[in-house]
Amino acid sequence: MKLSGERSAGKPHAAFDEAGAGNVMMDGLESHDESHGLSTESKVRAPVLDPTCEHLRGRFPWVTRLVVCFQAEADAKRFRQAMEERLNQFGLEIAPEKTQCIEFGVFAIKRAKARGQKAATFDFLGFTHYCSRSRNGKRFRMKRKTISKRLTAKLKAYKGWLKSNRNLTTPEIIQKTVSKLRGHYGYYGVTDNSKGINAYFYEVRGILYKWLNRRGKRGCYSWEKFAKLLERYPLPTPRIMVNLF
């Protein structure tokens, strides 16, 4: 497949499904094969646009989510149309409720402010991506933070785990909690997401304190006793594990 024609002028845009720092993204590509009773959101191979925006070439194996960036809005819309037509040839389609074209990049903040709005954001792979500036304010930088719904869901899952495993010994519970915290930091501990991983740590610590209190007499653990317990069995403190810049 080929996207031909001259590159059109326009604003930097991003068209995507659940994500991206640019101009086109697809999420939830679905296959409908009634002869085999299939309705899947995986095992889809989709073409990718080359850097010149002139040809579609190459393949991503098993794509369900895709972000593609363009300098011009018109290119993003042409890509989406071409992609939809191509996928339809194989009985596939893009989930419309998860696909969008947004302005994102260096000038998005200024233009959004002129309209009395905030620059658009998008969620992808557990992170909300948003337009921002470097620490000294001189350069544009795309930053990431934990998706708020994802954070809430993970805390709910931890609370459920404690409820189901409240008969474990205190050292065992803390050991498992330590593993969960380290796993969370390993994925979400990226540049600019200190606030997100700190929020997770403090909420987990509060939930742990609450459930340890429930296992004995009401109020058997004061914060002073809990602090002494954590001195003996310390929880890992939040820290950035991956520097993206």
Relevant terms:
245 residues, alpha+beta, 2 domains, four-stranded antiparallel sheet, three-stranded antiparallel sheet, 6 helices, 12 strands, 37% helix, elongated, disordered N terminus
Layout of helices and strands:
Layout: E1 13-16, E2 24-27, E3 30-33, E4 38-40, E5 46-49, E6 56-60, E7 65-70, H1 73-88, E8 92-93, E9 100-102, H2 108-114, E10 122-124, E11 127-133, E12 140-146, H3 148-164, H4 170-188, H5 194-214, H6 223-232
Antiparallel strand pairs: 1-7, 1-9, 2-7, 3-4, 3-8, 5-6, 10-11, 11-12
Helix pairs in contact: 3-5, 4-5
Question: What's the count of strands?
Answer: 12
Largest β-sheet summary: 4 strands, antiparallel
Straight-line N-to-C gap:
35 Å
Strand content: 15-25%
Mean pLDDT value: 78
> Which strand order do you get reading across the main beta sheet?
2-7-1-9
Unreliable stretches, pLDDT < 50, 5 or more residues? Answer: 1-57
Q: Please, how many domains?
A: 2
Rg estimate, integer Å: 23 Å
How many DSSP H or I helices?
6
Oligomer: single chain
Overall geometric form: elongated
Helix fraction, binned, reads: 25-40%
Structural class: alpha+beta
Order of helix and strand elements from N to C terminus: EEEEEEEHEEHEEEHHHH
Report on the architecture of this protein.
The protein has 245 residues and is α+β, with helices and mostly antiparallel strands. The protein has 2 domains: 13-144, no CATH class; 147-232. 37% of the residues lie in helices and 21% in strands. Helix 3 (148-164) packs parallel to helix 5 (194-214). The radius of gyration is 23 Å and the shape is elongated. The two termini are 35 Å apart. Mean pLDDT is 78; it is low at 1-57.
